[in-house]
Amino acid sequence: MSELVRLLKDLGKDAKLADAYAKDSDAVLSEYNLTEAEVEALKAGDVDKIREASGLEELHMTNATIKSY
């Protein structure tokens, strides 16, 4: 599993991590071995680029929170 997919899944299942991401995304992102392009896509909220990088077709974004399911 890629680090991006792991992060997305972790954010979707761990409310504390999702809250931490909302408060300080840089701190959470630094805990994952993401590429610069992945970080930029996440920070921009670019769902198409995140979908492409993660390979997850069922990727949704609501209120700037990205979830995979």
Characterization of the model:
With 69 residues, this protein is mainly alpha-helical. The protein has one domain (3-68). It has helices spanning 3-13, 15-23, 25-29, 36-44, 47-54; strands at residues 59-62, 65-68. The chain has a two-stranded antiparallel ribbon.
Present the secondary structure layout.
Blueprint: H1 3-13, H2 15-23, H3 25-29, H4 36-44, H5 47-54, E1 59-62, E2 65-68
Antiparallel strand pairs: 1-2
**Count of all domains:** 1
What fraction strand? 5-15%
Number of extended strands: 2
Indicate the low-confidence ranges by residue numbers: none
Shape call: globular
- Let me know the average pLDDT: 85
Helix/strand order, N-terminal first: HHHHHEE
Radius of gyration: 11 Å
Helical fraction equals: 55-70%
Q: Main beta sheet, described?
A: 2 strands, antiparallel
Secondary-structure class: mainly alpha
Number of alpha- plus pi-helical segments: 5
Strand order of the largest sheet: 1-2
Q: State the distance separating the first and last CA atoms.
A: 15 Å
Could you provide a short overview of the structure?
This protein is mainly α.
Based on the model shown, name its key terms.
single chain, 69 residues, mainly alpha, globular
